[in-house]
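User: I've been trying to design a sequence by hand for this structure and keep getting stuck. Would you show me what you'd pick, starting by listing the structure so we're on the same page?

Assistant: Good idea, let's start from the same input. This is the structure you sent:
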C-alpha cells in the first residue's frame, strides 16, 4: 500500500438502543454534565421543614415577651404576631425571631420568683379615676372591671391567660373601657354596649384561647380592639 494514501479512521461501533443512537440521545450526565436530581443532592438543598402548632405557639409567646420588654413597638408586634400565626415553615418563624434574644433573663427570673399557687386578682374598680393593666400580667379565668366616670385600659397583648376560656366583665358608667387583644385569640363579645373592632379574617388555630367579653354601659363605651386606637 502506498504510504502517501490517507488513513481512514476505524468506524465507531454503535450499539442499537444504546446512548447516542437514533431515538435515544445521550443524557446530560453521559455528556459530562449532571442531572437536576444529582445537582440538587450535591448542593445540599432540601425541602423547607414545616412548622408545627407548638412551634408557632412558642414563637408567639416569645414575641409577647419581647413586646412586654419594650423590644417591639405596637406596629411591629402586631405584624410579627400575625405572621407567626400564619407561618408555614420553621424558616419563617426563625426570621421573625432573628433579631430577638433567644431567652429573656428578666422574664425567666420573674417566672421563677413568682410564688406558686398565687391566684391573679379578679376585680378592678375605679371611681372617677382609671383602671390600667398592661405588660406581662396574669389574667384569671373570670375578671371584672368597673369604672365610674373615668377610664379603663386593659391590654392583653402581652398578658398571660391562665385558662383556655376567659370571661371578662366590663361595666362603664359614663366611661370608656378599651380592651386590647393579641392576634390569635377568639373574641366573643356580648352584653349591652360592647363594641368590637377585631380582624374578622385573622388566622385562628382550632385550639385558640377564647375571650368572652360582657360589656354593660350607661352613657359610656366598652370596646374590644386588636390594635391601639390612633391618636
Amino acid at each position: 500500500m502506498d504510504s502517501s494514501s490517507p488513513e481512514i479512521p476505524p468506524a465507531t461501533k454503535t450499539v442499537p438502543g444504546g446512548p447516542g443512537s437514533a431515538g435515544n440521545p445521550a443524557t446530560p450526565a453521559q455528556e459530562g454534565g449532571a442531572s437536576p436530581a444529582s445537582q440538587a443532592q450535591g448542593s445540599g438543598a432540601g425541602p423547607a421543614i414545616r412548622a408545627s402548632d407548638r412551634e408557632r405557639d412558642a414563637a408567639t409567646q416569645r414575641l409577647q415577651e419581647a413586646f412586654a420588654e419594650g423590644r417591639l413597638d405596637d406596629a411591629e408586634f402586631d405584624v410579627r404576631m400575625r405572621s407567626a400565626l400564619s407561618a408555614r415553615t420553621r424558616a419563617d418563624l426563625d426570621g421573625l425571631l432573628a433579631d430577638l434574644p433567644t431567652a429573656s433573663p428578666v422574664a425567666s427570673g420573674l417566672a421563677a420568683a413568682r410564688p406558686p399557687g398565687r391566684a391573679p386578682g379578679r376585680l378592678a374598680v375605679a371611681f372617677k379615676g382609671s383602671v390600667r393593666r398592661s405588660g406581662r400580667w396574669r389574667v384569671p379565668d373570670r375578671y371584672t372591671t368597673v369604672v365610674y366616670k373615668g377610664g379603663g385600659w386593659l391590654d392583653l397583648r402581652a398578658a398571660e391567660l391562665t385558662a383556655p376560656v376567659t370571661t371578662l366583665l366590663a361595666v362603664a358608667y359614663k366611661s370608656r373601657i378599651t380592651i386590647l387583644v393579641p392576634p390569635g385569640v377568639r373574641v366573643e363579645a356580648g352584653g349591652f354596649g360592647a363594641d368590637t373592632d377585631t380582624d374578622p379574617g385573622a388566622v385562628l388555630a382550632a385550639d385558640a384561647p377564647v375571650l368572652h367579653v360582657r360589656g354593660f354601659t350607661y352613657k359610656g363605651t366598652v370596646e374590644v380592639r386588636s390594635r391601639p386606637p390612633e391618636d
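That's my pick for every position. To get oriented when you compare it with your attempt: Residues 26-42, 109-113 have pLDDT under 50 and may be disordered. Residues 53-108 form one domain.
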